[in-house]
Design a protein that fits this description.
297 residues, mainly alpha, MetI-like fold, 69% helix
């Protein structure tokens, strides 16, 4: 009896060791795949930073030099002085902040309406709204341009900002609606009993409950407006109204001028820094807002 018990214990210990070894091997393989993917994705970024610290003739040198010696730190200052980037930075911040505020405000109100109010055709309207996500941006490019031209608003920031007040981000509306639908109605009823009106309930009860989704929308909106190139390229003509992305395009040169690749990479690095900082500061809420979207409602 004792020998059989000892045999059983030995077999159980072997099984645990096998399971533990398999778990370690599986975890190691997952880490290897993730690290390999991260390296592949980071190579272009590292090449951009490396090129920003080289002389122009060394950017496309073969074999490539990944760590330039000595690093040309003056490329950043030279690029900033070559074009009025101070003015372009102010324009970009203005468009980004105003667009983010408009996008978050309008999309939140529309999403709350779809989540909490019943009205004829609600589901049909929501389906139509989501269907616009499948409509390519280039299909509406020319009609939209003609609308702004007829309104005599070309060469202004209005075409870049005003559409945000119409909740033109169906993905944002969908994300926020899913979170609203996951908030218990008891909270709204309790606020109503305490004497809060609809606006107070929305601002002080509902919005704090969907903070992860709001931060996720804010990160997406910031990325979209900060990196927007096609919109300013189409609607802005005056160089004094250019954004950072259009200012960088000036380094591509012209008919008789070679592209300034080292300056272009330097300003690309500068342009990427706010995005990286924003993502890492809001990383926890951003990932939570995306991962929980499909679990609400």
């Amino acid at each position: 009896m004792t020998a059989r018990l000892e045999t059983t214990l030995v077999v159980a210990q072997r099984a645990r060791r096998v399971r533990r070894a398999k778990a370690v091997a599986s975890r190691t393989a997952a880490y290897v795949v993730v690290i390999a993917g991260a390296v592949v994705l980071l190579v272009p970024f590292f090449w951009m930073v490396s090129s920003s610290l080289k002389e122009l003739q060394d950017v496309f040198a073969y074999p490539p030099v990944w760590l330039p010696i000595p690093p040309q730190w003056h490329n950043y200052l030279d690029a900033w002085r070559a074009v009025p980037f101070g003015r372009y930075l102010a324009n970009t911040v203005f468009v980004t902040v105003l667009g983010m505020f408009a996008e978050i405000t309008s999309c939140t109100l529309v999403a709350y309406g779809f989540a909490r109010y019943s009205f004829p055709g609600r589901n049909a309207l929501f389906f139509i709204l989501l269907s616009t996500m499948m409509l390519p941006y280039h299909v509406t490019l020319i009609p939209t341009y003609m609308i702004w031209r007829n309104l005599k608003l070309l060469d202004t920031f209005d075409p870049l900002v005003l559409p945000a007040w119409t909740a033109w981000g169906p993905f944002y509306v969908f994300l926020l609606r899913q979170f609203f639908m996951g908030v218990p109605r008891d909270l709204e009823e309790a606020a109503k009993i305490d004497g809060a009106n609809v606006l107070q309930t929305f601002a002080h009860v509902m919005l704090p409950q969907i903070k992860p989704a709001l931060l996720a929308v804010a990160v997406f909106a910031f990325r979209g407006y900060w990196n927007n190139f096609l919109g300013p390229l189409i609607y802005l003509n005056s160089m004094s109204k250019y954004t950072l992305t259009l200012g960088m395009y000036l380094f591509m040169g012209g008919v008789n001028e070679a592209p300034q690749w080292h300056w272009l990479m330097a300003m690309s690095t500068v342009l990427a820094v706010p995005m990286l900082v924003t993502f890492f500061l809001a990383q926890r809420y951003f990932i939570e807002g995306i991962s929980l979207t499909g679990l609400k409602g």
